[in-house]
Amino acid sequence: MTADVPSKPYQQANLREGHLPDTHVLLVLAIQEAGLRSALAAQLAMSGASLITTSDIDNPALLRGVRRPPVLVIDRGTLAVRAPGWLEVALEESRWLQIVLLTETRHDEPATSHAKLLRLEPKQAVRALGEKIPHWREELAP
Questions:
Q1: Which CATH number fits domain 9-140: 3.30.750.24, 3.20.20.10, 3.20.20.140, 3.40.50.2300?
Q2: 67: which of 57, 59, 117, 140 lies 20 to 30 Å off by Cα?
Q3: Structure pTM?
């Protein structure tokens, strides 16, 4: 299921009003590969993560009411349909706390290196994202 709103009514209402609890980190999943997106969304939601899934990360309404920068999770498919240089520009924006790129390790492509970019193998994404959430919470703490 891909939607531009959180999957839980409580989260949807509170997010719309800008009331995401201070202890939550919002993850924006913009993943083209349907199986990966569904599995990741289900497993992260069951672990209590606050999620939005979307196919339009440039929609200005996507983050309306969100007070703190969320974490953007994308895959190669999402990156492939973006304009050249989009990732480098997005990494410099304050809109995202961090950008997570789900990709198989390939040695034949240039590696973009940036403190806000985290590359993860899709198979390890749920575990690795779950481990990162406490770190992101600390980073966003007032």
A1: 3.40.50.2300
A2: 117
A3: 0.80
